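Quick question: what would this complex look like in 3D?
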Amino acid sequence: MADTPLSESAAIAVIREMLSAPAPALEVGVGDDAAVFHFAGGSIILTVDSIYEGIHFTLDTCGLADIGWKAMAASVSDIAAMGGQPLCALMSVAFGAPPTEDEVRALLGGALEMSGSCNCSIIGGDICRSSSGLGVSVTVAGTPHAYGPVLRSGAREGDIIGVTGTLGDSAGGLYVLKSGHPDLRAKFPALVDAHLRPESRIPAGEILASCGASAMEDVSDGLAADLVHICQESDVGCEIYSEAIPLSGELRALANEARCDPLQWALAGGEDYELVFTAPEERFSKALSSLAEREAPATRIGVVAHASKGTRLIAPDGRAESLEGLGYDHFLK
Amino acid sequence: MADTPLSESAAIAVIREMLSAPAPALEVGVGDDAAVFHFAGGSIILTVDSIYEGIHFTLDTCGLADIGWKAMAASVSDIAAMGGQPLCALMSVAFGAPPTEDEVRALLGGALEMSGSCNCSIIGGDICRSSSGLGVSVTVAGTPHAYGPVLRSGAREGDIIGVTGTLGDSAGGLYVLKSGHPDLRAKFPALVDAHLRPESRIPAGEILASCGASAMEDVSDGLAADLVHICQESDVGCEIYSEAIPLSGELRALANEARCDPLQWALAGGEDYELVFTAPEERFSKALSSLAEREAPATRIGVVAHASKGTRLIAPDGRAESLEGLGYDHFLK
């Protein structure tokens, strides 16, 4: 009876069956008080990220499998942002109402699809009720690159700033989904996919770490906010050229049709999970070549400046605008 | 202006200041994409537990500091239930509305007080909005005892069943808080404290692991549900004597006054975070002595039986009742 609400123990039985595949280094999996895994020793990266119904997603634009995927991708992306490799994950799910077996299978199935794509095993977690709406919190443990984790604080004046992939696609996809027009959805499939099934940039992060990137972060709150984080942590400023910010053909076409500014989606949309990074000129060029060889193109978008210059977005006509306040802040409207 | 709602970045600045104390083995703390800590190698226990407003607490019975404490205690308790030691924690908080500085300080302050009491450092986490109500999810990483983690699956027929401390106090405390009577609160302070500030049984868990307990779990869903977990995982049954279940004097007095059955609070109340464990007779006696020496008394409550006997609660008149269905299930009413 896959569409009858489950008891907690029945839901755990479904989850346990879905997580029964052997995971490397796993010593104790689902069914005990906690998971136990073996680690040879060294540095461990630990991160948690959460998404909530009504804030990060609504069930009319995202399916449960998409939500499982997105929750996993958001946390895995934090490991990518340090140039690391994910090891294993815990998933904590609060259901607004007792879920059916189909719902549990969809949510966890999406998460497993995403975690499997980057060799990350889901080894445990917890489920409970929330008083309203679905909440998913994913913890990921990983290991840094042999050269050490790439931090936000390492950018130096004169470093070049780059970003992987294209930006704003996720925000464009959300615009399409919110519009509710099936025509629009059929016309812009890559944008919808970027929103519902964001890729992890684990391989790009590893290449950037091995090429000696000086600072790195994932684009989760929009390029503006995330670049401001790097500048604040590194005590530097920056100059970004608006024309250099990589936008996809689909995003430009949608913006044209919707009479929107695609740059705003790139700067403030968030959830792109691309990597914004800095590196001294020579290393930067090497990184761009290495990324291109691995079919993970990146783009030069600006330079790191002295802190006194602030964080500036330069328009084609030379006018400058501060990046601060352009990104997403959960507690501001 | 400690009572003005904060922006996300201002809230993070407060959290960062509060978490600035040096933590052992910490390599990267708050302010980057993820936390990084050093681990010498071996087994790592990883667990997550979440509490939600309206389900696990309401703000009229719990202060924010209590909620921070309880969220941390619930996850640390999973480490205790394996006989392990906590290393570090991540805290993921969803606020129903932008919090004030005082609110952030209260919540995190309670969590820090609890984590400090068991040498667990809070090294990172995330904050975001929820569409309704406060949600706190805590991940804890820890290490098992040198003899290995004590699992739920090791109970054998003939083992003795014991439990630390007294049971039902947290449920009694909740009854007092829900009543809203200040007189009742003044009369039963230990029950209220057991509900708002549950202790971690890390030291008791370690003693039990070193004495060779065969199975262990923390009492989070009520003795009935948690003992059923052990029996299911170990493929055994059990006999528990209702008169042997340890109840505090305050709980008996409250039950008398409220005309409630204190045993129901012990069996189905949950959130006691005591440890229920099994061990062969000789080891069991040794464990009880060791616990008593360390002022962590435990009580013998029954024996492990063959699976065919089921999980039975025996009344003083010899009548038996199944433990199944007596505990808390998040998805059943």
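Answer marked as accepted. The radius of gyration of chain B is 20 Å.
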